[in-house]
Amino acid sequence: MSGIVQKFKWQQLLLILLIAAVAIGSDGCKSTGKLTKKERKAQIEAAKKQLGEIISGTSTKSLEEQDRTVNDIAGKNFNDKDLNQMIIQAQQKLKRAFAERDKNKQVKIDEARTKLLDMLLNKEGKSADELQKELDAIKALNLNDRDINELIAKVEQKIVSMGSSANIPLKDQIENAFQGIATASKSGDISKASQIIKNTMPLFTGEDATVLIIISRDGSIVDYDKPTTIKRYMDFVKDQKASRNAVDAYMLDTNGKIKELDLIKK
Question: Which domains does the chain show, CATH number per domain?
Answer without folding.
Answer: 44-167 (no CATH), 168-265 (3.10.450)
